[in-house]
Amino acid sequence: MRAFIAIEISDAIKDVLGRVITHLKYSGADVKWVDPGIIHLTLKFLGEITDDKRDDIKSSLDTLAKDVKPFEMTIKDLGAFPAIERPRVIWVGLDKGSLEATDLALRIKDSLSEAGFPGSDRPFSAHLTIGRVRSPLNSDKLKDKVSSASSIIQSAGAVSHKVSSVILFQSTLTSHGAIHTKLHESALKGH
Q1: What angle do CA 123, 107, 105 make, to 5 degrees?
Q2: CA angle, 55 as apex, 7 and 48 as ends, to 5°?
Q3: Which of 32, 89, 131, 134 has the greatest number of C-beta atoms within 10 Å?
Q4: Mind telling me the catalytic residues?
Q5: Helices assigned H by DSSP within 72-156
Q6: At what angle do helices 11-25 and 139-155 cross, to 10 degrees?
Q7: Which of 122, 178, 87, 126 is nearest to 9 (CA)?
Q8: Which helix (H) or strand (E) holds 12?
């Protein structure tokens, strides 16, 4: 099964992201937009895993979650990887909770590397992917819309989400998009 570890986000944040995506669609750019209902903060993509590995992951997550305190998360800015001039991924960044999410991702990486999962050389960047660019069509218009879409996030105020768990998801790819199924949830209980 294809799997990843992530943090779910609040409906209030998903609503703001939906408004941002709607605004960006007016650029006419060739982007595969993510359904706001399934947007999450990926902490570690695992790829294909076996049932045995799934059990190891659950155990690792339960163990590390005991030492991690719940935290607040808010969204802040909008950008693109690798750069807005040649975007491949459109994202919304975190403000509050960015350091905590990064720390959690590193703990997961370390814990799973002990369980035999290879770590990534790429540094973790706390972001919510909202779209994947398929071609350069209307990329200048997209760049302009990204600049103006930041005001949607600013005007929403400090919409927040209390992160109280980390989740192992199965991702099933279909012709209508990905379906994410919760396999395991580990509550954050740090003191």
Answers
A1: 45
A2: 70
A3: 131
A4: 40, 127
A5: 98-114, 139-155
A6: 150
A7: 126
A8: helix 11-25
Full-model pTM = 0.93
d(CA 4, CA 9): 15
Say how far apart CA 138 and CA 45 lie, in whole Å: 30
Question: In terms of Cα–Cα distance, which of 39, 158, 58, 156 is closest to 108?
Answer: 58
For the chain, how big is the Rg over CA atoms in Å? 17
pLDDT, tens only, 65-113: 999 999 999 999 899 999 999 999 999 999 999 999 999 999 999 999 8
What's domain 2-187's superfamily in CATH? Answer: Cyclic phosphodiesterase (3.90.1140.10)
Three-state helix/strand/coil letters over 108-129: HHHHHHHCCCCCCCCCCCCEEE
Tokens in use for 29? 């750019």
